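User: Show me sequence and structure for the first protein, then do the same for the second.

Assistant: Starting with the first protein.
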Amino acid sequence: MIQTAAALAASHGVAAACSALAVKAEARDTYLISLANGELQGYIATEAAAAEGGYEASNAIYAPAAGWTLVEATLRLLIDPG
């Protein structure tokens, strides 16, 4: 568990709920904000969602692995905002 004060983590796209929950599992007081900073808006589907298909996955502009990349990068920045 990462011990931090409350933190906001923002992304351009709409992250899947499981991505936000994965961040919160490691950093409880962190909140993932979607559609921040406006330019590359689109769904960030997970690999599981892409395999199932559906609206978000079929309209995603990011690769299916991007959700976990977002989680990993967010957690790295919380550990060392450097």
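Switching to the second protein now.
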Amino acid sequence: MATVVFALGWLLVLAGMVVAIIGGALTVFVPQLIAGGLLLVIGLAIERWRYKQISHQPPKPGWTDTGERFVDPETNQLIAVYLDKTNSDRHYLAVGQPSARKTPPRKNTMTDTPK
């Protein structure tokens, strides 16, 4: 999916450049094409940089367990957070099998009042 979005973004930028070179009545769409394409490409780059993938490999030497644990909402796997002290990168490692249990719905404190 990410590859499709990336390709679509660059395709929009390219289409905007082609329309700008050709000219004519379609030049009113040049800013939207280029800005939309760049928005897709930059958004995808930020998403790839910000959200790290979960690894299933054992921790490497030099990684320190931070003690942080959380359940990944997409896979329902228990995830452990490790810190690489050489470059301060955080690594996310799956430490449990996916759970069939779904998180129970949260109570709405505005409407769920005790009687």
